[in-house]
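Residues and backbone
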Amino acid sequence: MIIELSEKFADIEPEEWNNYHVAFENIINAHRMGWHIFAPPRKVANRISKDCDLSRSQKSIFDSHVQDRITTLLGQARSADHTIICIPDSMPVIAERSNQFALPISKFIDPRNLLPFLLITENAQNDGVFLERLCLIFSKHLGYQSPMMLEHRHGGGGTTAAQYREALTDYRPTLCVIDSDRRYPDGPLGSTARAVRGVELHNTTRVVQAHILPVREAENLVPLSFLFDVYGTNPNISDTISKIHKYKNSDVAKCSIYNVLYFIDFKTGDTKGSIAKIPMPYKTHMLNFCSFIGTRKENDDQFSNPECDEKAVPGISENLIHQTISFINNNGRLESSLMRKILSAPFWDELEHILRLILAFSCGGQRLPV
């Protein structure tokens, strides 16, 4: 992440710099490692070089790779969606711009808070890597040049909230992004999302944040038309996708008050019993969907039986995200096609906010050869 300093550092007494030299050395080291980008104002940079008791090696790095590149670094900071701004401990912790997350400089006396950005998801190898891949594709679309620096943390469903609670005890830049597990718009969140939201109520910093996906699961983010490419060689799965895709373009879908496809289970499918539990009017549109794809016959009373475990909505694949990631990795030329399709999705505004946060939090540099 880009770390700025308040202009107020230029006005503090020389003696006060002694309180901050460890924090500055840690920030400079994070810049050297490429984990974060240090972009202090020009006047403050001059004060650091003059008054801060840096070690010889850290002063050399600061003078050569921060102060000598100050124009470029400040340009990056001004164009970033979000940055951290550090404030002298003797002054109120208030940001100078609305896109800055303010912290007292002393929080970086602990070097662990300057480790690379941490992304917590329920499944790091699938959900986490997929979000990272979407961010890389989106960054190309935006013309970003900075590399992404991040560490994935596997939440493991039931323990995701505990991982997030632990993150809140520190000030390491962290985002926790989880499935909503909602069955319909504004429906109840799943247990993991509820647990994380409960922890979030105690959050006092913007450097650590939790966000819930605008769809049921990460799988619902993948456009159906792109899944045709992913599963083009599998006739059984392609047939399932084709049925669902025909619904997407039908008059039945256009008359629906919500997009059913953002709330079905693409991994294992949905049973008639689970649909029976959906309240009206949402249930009506789910029943219309099932009728369209041929899994509901007229007067089928099993859709009123919450105990019925007969499949009503076929799943596509339990490994959908993993297989989509592998397909993208092997067919890079289709990245722009995927991005265009996601950009046109109704959930894009909410997803864009999450992707831009990940890009801002993970904004790093090249490791310096010193």
Remarks:
- The chain is about 40% helix and 10% strand.
- The first helix runs from residue 21 to 33.
- The chain has a mean pLDDT of 94.
- Residues 2-110 form one domain.
